[in-house]
């Protein structure tokens, strides 16, 4: 059964979908730009059947609140605040694309909070050619379009400190790359992985949306990595259903 909770933070409300055994080690899932927590449904529960899973809607997405400020750092701080609100001292953390960037920023800022780290098709923290921001679509979308411009600007010209911070990640890390059909330069993903002290890489030729396009192969790669000794979980607090 999946429970949806809202965690009230000082400047935004964050929606969280919880599933799995209540006493299982905690696993937190972070989606890509323009997605929401339910994007992971296709690989759950096979991905981590023994974990208590917390799939978040990042600020401006899904059922989470819209905000005045959007940045990878504010999203990182939101996720850390959710850990505190839910009493999660140490978690396994999985992030896809934008959610992967949030995940590696959190893992380098608070390495003691992360047990294992999975980064799927993440935008590496290296400068890239800027491209035009697409026009807002005419049809409604399931996220705040205002999030696109500031996050794209950060990913085009990332803070050099993000790259140096990868060396501070202590969690065993699995990087999932999408192969030659992905728009993310695969050599840059390899460069990112080389900076993380305990890191391995697996390539699944699926393009950028690995867990959606090749769910069975994704689970086969990630589930064994997560099925290692569990992490402690605390009690919940400051949430509303």
In words, what does this structure look like?
This protein has helices spanning 72-86, 98-109, 148-156, 160-165, 186-195, 210-213, 215-226, and strands at 3-8, 13-19, 26-30, 52-56, 91-96, 114-120, 173-177, 199-203, 239-240. The chain is α/β, with parallel strands linked by helices. It has a single domain, classed as 3-Layer(aba) Sandwich (Rossmann fold). It has a nine-stranded mixed beta sheet with strand order 8-7-6-5-3-4-2-1-9, with helices on both faces. Strand 7, helix 5 (186-195) and strand 8 (199-203) form a beta-alpha-beta unit. Helix 1 crosses helix 2 (98-109). The relative contact order is 0.18. Mean pLDDT is 93; it is low at 230-241.
